[in-house]
Amino acid sequence: MPVNWPLTLRVLSVLCAIGVIITALFGFAATIVKDFPAGFIINMYLVLFSVMIIIGELRVRALMNRFQFLQTFLGRGIFYIFVGTICFMYPSIGNIVVGVVITANGAIHIFHFIIQSDAVKQEAQELREKGYVDTGLGKAVQSRVAKETKDQLKTQWLNKPHEEVP
């Protein structure tokens, strides 16, 4: 049975990002005693970048338009290697394991770009045709957030006392 590399890499990327968030949260506690504020700032960046990875893998177009490098295997690969190297700043077992796995994930992304796998070609085709890479899940998340925001604004506007116009 052939491996569905795009799905496998997407799941691995999300799991890596969750792992980075968990190790960063433990890192917050460790850096309060030692290496404050630098360690705190590094862990904040790790959390921010991990959230970007998760949202990028969901293919939420609002993020993809602002960070277009997340739309390609090469861009994601380089970004994952970057995040992985940041994990090695404060070596602990968790940071090293997550750093190695996310760096390897980035290397696999770059490898797929180099060999021009079918997934890379399909992604490039979507970028040429639509201008972005899309998935049903990202579209669903984006429409749900838009609907909830609209409903929330509508409720706030209706509950707000309005001045009467003469």
Q: Could you explain how this protein is built, in words?
A:
- By secondary structure, this protein is mostly helical.
- The chain is built from seven helices and no strands.
- It has helices at residues 5-33, 38-57, 61-66, 73-87, 93-115, 118-130, 136-159.
- The longest helix is centred in the first third of the chain and has 29 residues, at 5-33.
- The chain is flat, with a radius of gyration of 20 Å.
- The mean pLDDT is 82.
Multimeric state: single chain
User: Beta-strand percentage?
Assistant: under 5%
What are the low-pLDDT stretches, counting only 5+ consecutive residues below 50?
A: none
Structural class: mainly alpha
Strand runs, count: 0
Strand and helix order:
HHHHHHH
Helix content, binned percent: over 70%
Task: Provide tags for this entry.
166 residues, 78% helix, mainly alpha
Itemize the secondary structure elements and their pairings:
Blueprint: H1 5-33, H2 38-57, H3 61-66, H4 73-87, H5 93-115, H6 118-130, H7 136-159
Helix pairs in contact: 1-2, 1-5, 2-4, 4-5
Describe what is shown at a glance.
The chain has about 170 residues and is mainly α.
